[in-house]
Amino acid sequence: MLFIALAKFKTKLNKEVVARNRKDIVADTKGQVGYLGIYRTPGRYDTVILFEAPDEKVAMKMAIRRAEDMDIETLLAIPMEEAKKLVE
Q1: What is the pLDDT of residues 2-21, one digit of tens each?
Q2: 34: which residues sit within 8 A by CB, 6+ positions away?
Q3: Which listed CATH number (3.30.70.1060, 3.30.1180.10, 3.40.50.720, 3.40.50.2000) goes with 2-87?
Q4: Phi then psi for 61, rounded to 5 degrees?
Q5: Domain boundaries, the chain
Q6: Which of 1, 27, 48, 69 lies 20 to 30 Å from 18, alpha-carbon distance?
Q7: pTM flag (> 0.85)
């Protein structure tokens, strides 16, 4: 399953926060989360993360692990071809 996470840091970024999140990303990639892209963005969200996970539970664990440093809104991304089939 494909997910999009929209993240806003709760505090200013510092070396400790960056190191902790880098460590979490490494732990995730050894598990069930596959990161397809991590982007820093200006505006409402600080970061947009595109990732794959086998199900919503794994995606939720990824977001909960980062709750100390950021607020995350996670969205399920449904390919357009699959979405079209749902409305036919």
Answers
A1: 999 999 998 887 888 777 77
A2: 51, 52, 53
A3: 3.30.70.1060
A4: -60, -40
A5: 2-87
A6: 1
A7: no
